[in-house]
Amino acid sequence: MSNIFKNVAQNENTRLTGTTASEIFTSLYTKGLWSSTVASLKSFHTSSVQNTASKEYYLQVWMSSSLNTKENEMFSIAYGNINGSGSKYVTTAYDVVGQASDTPSRAIYSQYKLMCLDETETKFKLEDDTEVNDFYAININRNRFGDKLDPGNFEINIAELNGGLFANNFYTGSNVEVSSSNKIISLIDDSLDSIDQYEYSEKPAKVRNLVSGSLATGIYEPSNPHYYGKVYPDNGTIIISAQKLNENASFNTVVQSNTDGQNSYKLLTAMSGSAQNANLGFVARAVQIKHQQSIFIRVDSGEMNYSNNPTFVNTDSTKGRIGKPYFDSFMYNPHVYVTTIGLYNDNKDLLAVAKLSKPLQKSFNSELSITVKLEY
Questions:
Q1: Is the pLDDT reported for residue 319 higher than 70?
Q2: Pick from 334, 319, 325, 332: which is nearest to 366 by CA?
Q3: Residue 84 — very low, low, confident or very high, per pLDDT cuts 50/70/90?
Q4: Mean pLDDT score of the chain
Q5: Average pLDDT of 202-221?
Q6: What is the rounded distance in angstroms from the CA atom of residue 78 to the CA atom of residue 55?
Q7: How many domains does one find in the chain?
Q8: Which of 14, 244, 262, 330 is spaced 20 to 30 A from 194 at the CA atom?
Q9: What is the b/e burial string over 67-97, where b = at least 16 CB atoms within 10 angstroms of the residue's CB?
Q10: Bridge partners, residue 61, by sequence
Q11: Which segments of the chain does DSSP mark as H helices, in order?
Q12: Quick check: is 123 in a domain?
């Protein structure tokens, strides 16, 4: 095979000798977590669109009462209990008659344990080693927080409830109201500052502690923080100890067995109450990490001057000149147009395709210099 036809055959698979790549640059973008990239959410709504069965496990929270729910889904609230208390037994067609099955609160605890903890950990613990046997979980919708929740840039405000007025087994979601005390608990993570470089590296974000404090004033008593839970930035998940909310915000979390406590409504009511009574909402930002690299491609005058396009090379044996260009000028003075660049790995697997803004003419009398910018 002549050099000319080697060029024709390998046009689509030949690595150009003039190809080099720049270093990979990482850029950080932050934005408000909620719709229209606002950072503070002060309107909390449930919806009849969510079916009753799923509400036994979690409450989906919207920022408005609009029926266009896909644009307004913000986060969900769930209650988990290691013993399954605070929710009713769920039976299925596969259960033995008369035998109790699992409960939603136990399923939630197990789900978040698998999602957030290491394999060796059997239950959640606060930084001071206090065991968390039941918790409230805030799970931010994935399309809101991007790559991760921004450390040092979120604040949850919770109003005190009127739980002290009711016996535990009667303080279900239907009885929940905000207390007249006007007490507000503000919770942040313990990042200490709003720029934490560790979070923006290639490594997974480390677990943060949820502590008493505010974005304006920082951690309350930094030398002796008041721990309330854990923050998992990569998952967009916040775990709040039910015991801590019972002690400091009168949540009176229902822990009776086989009782539908509707505990998730308590956190929703407390967050909504802080917004209505104190104009303090759920403040949060999202982090998006973009990697950029430039691929510099130089096409020498003797490279890529032929085409595998069937209009360029004859593949029909009935027309003669099989495997040869249709015209002599295609062989000795070809002019082709570059429209697409493929990026391959060493195994010749196609990894990416770049489209040029306009076709570029190529011949033996010209060279091309092309820059492909990758962003991911």
A1: no
A2: 334
A3: very high
A4: 83
A5: 86
A6: 9
A7: 2
A8: 244
A9: eebeebbbbbbbbbbbebbbbbebeeeeeee
A10: 75
A11: 3-10, 52-55, 104-116, 142-145, 242-249, 264-278, 328-332
A12: yes
pLDDT digits (tens, 9 = 90+) for 123-140: 999 999 999 999 999 999
267 and 120 co-located in one domain: yes
- Do 129 and 207 reside in the same domain of the chain? yes
Q: Give residue 100's pLDDT.
A: 53
Rounded Cα gap, residues 296 and 340, in angstroms: 14
Domain housing 320: 3-25+293-375
- Region 313-328: mean pLDDT is 63
Contact between 188 and 213 under an 8 Å Cβ cutoff? The reply is yes
Could you tell me the CA-to-CA distances from 151 to 43, 62, 95, 141, 269 in Å, in that order?
A: 23, 23, 44, 17, 25
CA distances from 152 to 108, 124, 234, 286, 332 (A): 27, 22, 14, 11, 66
Query: What one-character-per-residue DSSP string does 151-212 give?
Result: TT--BEEEE-B-GGGS-GGG--GGG--B-TT--EEEEEES-SSS--GGGGSSSPPPPEEEEE
Output the pLDDT for position 16: 61
Any idea what DSSP says for residue 233?
Answer: T
